[in-house]
Amino acid sequence: MSTIKIIKSMIGIVLLGIILISGCTPAAKDFTKFVNPLIGTDEEGHTFPGAVLPNGMVQLSPDTRVSTSKGASGYHYSDNKIIGFTHTHLSGTGEGSGGDFLFMPISGSNDFSKNISIEYSSKFSHKNEYAEPGYYKVLLDDNKITAELTVTKRVGFHKYTFPKKSQRNIFFDLVHGIGDKADILNLKVISKTKIVGFRSSSGGLRMYQKLFFAAEFSEPFSESFFFEGKRIFKGLGETTARNVRAVFKFPNSKNPLLIKVAISRVNTRGAENNLKEISGWDFDLVKKKAKEEWNNVMNKISVKSKDKELKTIFYTSLYHTFIHPTLDMDINGRYRSTNNKIYRTKEFTNYTNFSLWDTFRGLHPLYTIINRSGTKDFIKTFIERYEHSGSLPMFEISGNEVPSMIGYHSLPVIADAYVKGIRNYNIDKAIKGMEELANLPWEKRNLYKTFGYIPYNYTVQSVSRTLEYAFDDWSLAQVLKNIDSNKSKYYYNRGNFYKNLFSNQTKFMQPKDSYGNWLKPFNPIEYSKHYTQANAYQYSLFVPQDVESLIDKIGGDKLFESWLDRFFSIKNDNKKNYLGQYNQGNEPSHHIAYLYNYAGAAWKTQKIVRKILTSQYQNTPSGLPGNDDAGELSAWFVFGALGFYPVTPGIDYYVIGSPLFDEVSLNLENGKIFKIVANNNSNENIYIQSASLNGISYQKSFIKHSDIMRGGKIIFNMGNMPNKNWAIKKEDRPYSNSFNSLRMPKITVAGIPIPSDGVITFEDSAMVYLSSPDDGVNIFYTTDGTEPDTLSILYKKEFQITGSTIIKAKSFKQNFKPSYATILKLRKLIKLPAKKISVLKEGINFDYREVWLCKKVDDINKYPVSCHGVVPKITTLLPMKMSMKNGVVYSGFIKVPKDGKYIFYVDSDDGSTLSIDGIMIVNNDGSHRRRERSGVIVLAKGYHEIIVKHFQVGGKPKLSVKWKVPGVSKIEIPDSVFYH
After folding, report:
1. Domains and CATH numbers, the chain
2. Contact (CB, 8 A) for 405 and 889
3. pLDDT tens digits for 86-119?
4. pLDDT digits over 725-761, tens only?
5. Contact (Cβ atoms closer than 8 angstroms) between residue 389 and residue 885
6. What is the rounded CA–CA span in Å between residue 73 and residue 63?
7. How far is it, in rounded angstroms, from Cα 288 to Cα 292?
8. How far apart are CA 355 and CA 46, in angstroms?
9. I need a surface site. Which of 25, 239, 277, 912 has the fewest CB within 10 A?
């Protein structure tokens, strides 16, 4: 072959290679065309249509209302006017928050020196409204102004096109907010193109926050007017007040007016620095980059389907799952933690808006597949909260821990990530924080640990609290399993507490009082105060950690299958969008459709899951079946469409349903691709006939997380008739990581029920009785507070106590794991002698602290004293201006008028304790709603030391201290007995 031929041949090979390479490289896909941000903006979806980046700090969107009823995001599709455009919003939550820094364009030559309105709203039509990921556009009909919005992570970018020859004005409102109240507002003019300031607010989901901003205009304003209440100031440089609004006038021009607005929770300097995310004034370039960033996220999951409507619902759902959690850190790494202090780090990205009661179920498990790097940062954020604020988060909104929902669900988020191999964080510190959170006394956990359940006569939502605490404890045990076996067994045992509320007679999780009696009458359909946003039908199936044992308790596979059939068929005429008792709009139902798999009836899961997917979600503004709850309802749809769901976060598998699309590719962060193929898939062919994983026949109705992460392909062959033999064998069904221990023994004292704090008081002696709900067990106990074992005292009959004692008892039985220990404290009432004090003054001392994160009264000591003095009595009326977060310690002496037994009562919100002579008499501790607790003590006539601690982190402080003197009715403790 000649040299020329060789060269031509080589050129041909190179060209062929280029053609092959280019043929194998797909063009960049635009997934955003399948996203409709208006889905969920009607009815009770509570989403917003505006511009946001994945997990972005700014959510720039129109507000159509400030009421959170059916509009917690500030926007509701049924409204026909826009109040303005604001920079913070929550997506899909049941309560509202945000709506900070409202900008509204106004045309016309108004005389703002004489009058400024508190609102410049405009009508609009959905015909002239457009939304896509990272971009929003609308025509304001009243002024014929076209408003366009786009964003970076920390900056909102406004573009307002006014009618030709029209006066251009911008109305700026610092008072406006969604579901909160403006406290102190600040606005400062830096130049004719830049303004800065802050907005502090309280109430609603935020509790309290201070948010800073920096705004820059594309051209200088000609005049400015400030409005404080009824006073108008022209050209004012800076103002700080409770009521601040302003108008900025710009010269007439055919050019659009552009505004960049950055936010920060650190300070105005941080907000100004964040403005650097946008260099220049190229609005279209920022919009283009926003679309690119969303396409990068959407590319994590690529679906193939001829059904454009389903693709739109799917990608909109995926879009909604990436709005929260929310970035909460300046561009230079500075952030404000929940203790109100500023920190700086390069080790992780700080986030907030953790709606964990909702998102531990589906959204966070979804992230363990498609956003593992984000999951690492979420957990590092959790650990940061523990380091600096003393507690892992439970339900954090805008950097505030909010007592909105029950449970301590950062534990299953960490456990789920841990068992799925996400461990590049300080696991020892995470475990320490998990243990402390699981054992804090607030949220009625002292009752939970004392009784093994929460009695309904002591608090509301008793059944739901018990079941969710049990699951959270089990989650901790999963992490400890290969680290500390003894601690792991302890928390697995607590994970069994759900059994204490299962009625063998009714087959429901049922409320029980402190005497051990079931609630009567009992109606499982009723939405009562004993369950959280649900009823007994739904919560009786919330045992994700131990489904196999639940099946056994109900009576085996067939009876459990029948139980589920009844659940999905019993009508509820008062509830729309229900499937029997199933409520897709509320999270406690979300795992239930997949439970048929555990009983060997996977085909029934396939049928019901496909029905939910195709009937409960639509490509319409009302297309969500309820509040999206920070993306949780959307996460359920994403999982359901893929063909599986995480019934048990904390176990490394997913339960298989019915895949919605012909083919799905999961493009994983490790570079692997996992494909899900559904052959012969259609609206009729919803049943799995057979399956294969990487070419090998697959009979299991669950798939391991590790199989997904390794990459590969699972193929489902679909048909219109159920294959009732697929995944029917026990080894092919999902399994539970259960810990089958005995139930806790019961301790009674002469028929007296255990009080809510687990402390029984007596004067001379007390007779103690032990019993067990299980047959054939031996009960061993101790009276010195140590943990009982089979070498401890064997209970044979009742025994007498004559002094203060801590009794711990456990049940033991051969071939069974021992029970969790029942703990009872008995305190003998001994008359405390009076203090010999010569010189005292009237009144009682107080130390006042402004607190930021209190879960128990001892947390008050973490904060410096900001004011101290003397008041006539223990009261909430302190001689100072108090914040929304208060901690007060009263100390001094109380003059007891006679010898005898005294009962003290403390009524407070959120937590309080009362001690006499160093002994805690009333323990009303823990973050809770207002309630009264009491305690008894025998005192000698004379002076006794008294200390009352009280904290409240929202609302008007409430504290009342009363006593019952021997022979006298219960009264408020009078001023005349307090001394210092």
Report:
1. 35-293 (2.70.98.10), 746-828 (2.60.40.10), 844-979 (2.60.120.1560)
2. no
3. 999 999 998 888 999 999 999 988 888 888 888 9
4. 999 999 999 999 888 899 999 898 987 777 777 788 8
5. no
6. 8
7. 6
8. 14
9. 25
